[in-house]
Write a structure and sequence with these properties.
Length: about 375
Amino acid sequence: RQASAKGAGRNPRPRSAARRDGIAKTSHAIISRNAPSRVSLDKTSPAKGKRSQIVCHAAQLDAGASSDGVNWKLVFYFVLWYAFNIIFNILNKSTLNIFPKPWLLSTIQLGAGVLWMMGMWVLRLQPVPRITPRLLRVLAPIALFHVVAHVSACVSFSKMAVSFTHVIKASEPVFTVLVSSIFMGKSFSGMTYLSLVPIVCGCSLAAMKEISFAWGGLSGALISNLGTVLRSICSKQLMDEFKEIDGINTYALISAIGLVYLAPVAYLVEGATWSAGWASAVQASGSAAKFIQLLAAGGVFYHLYNQVSFQALTGISPLTFSVGNTMKRIAVITSSILFFKNFVSPLNWVGTALAIFGAYMYSNSRVPAKKEA
């Protein structure tokens, strides 16, 4: 009774409050032990349901999600990424229809991005990055492969429908597996190799009845895939070593170095035909001012969609980015077909769906296996 009296003098907390504290502490320990997986459930506790909710809620907050479980900042990035990409593809193809000079157009688009970022730096809207010789050496191959991927894609767009080019570009996982296996000695799961089958079959089916098919366009899309894969491989070192540089400045520096690579080569390849092509495009668009506006808009939206994709990549896992990229292709293919009113045969639809499904399978097959405790 004396012990009870002493305890009463201390105003003991209700059992429900102590129970909640215990659950919170246990859930914190669970998260700490399982940080890589973000969310974990304590299977040994009798209060599994309650603890699961607390652990999930804490992991969502740690990942940047709001109290309702949705990371609205990430959603915003994805919406902008998709919207800017759709707008760019429509503007880009509209320009190439009247001005089929993909090398010059690629140069203008990179240049527009550089001018955009120079304005951001001058106006103090974006911090100026600290550039070192080491950083330039790391960025040099990334910028080179970025240029290869972009110019090759533009060449493909100039010769084929946007929708079919993006179907071929959905075969990018095939190049990832081949390059990683042959040159880096990596091995993949059986499901990853299996996912390549519908990709290859889907692209083949889509090509069989494609009205806009051209070998130059096909080779351009395939080379673009190779450039994209090599750029991704080189980017890993950049992300590991220079974490202080954000996505906006990273892409700005890649664009600037890429412009130095591209401009002289573009002149050598197409320079002799630029004057005649410009006159024809001005006549087709109605005036020089309208054509310049079209070029400027395409360049700005090209930079913005790439910039937003780099920003999104810094806040999510490569797997989430890969799945998002696959879904983006669906949005671009659908929107371009509706805008340009391209004829698509049933076999084209089947092939497109099969290739996209294979790309989705590939993304999910890269999920790391969970280790048992």
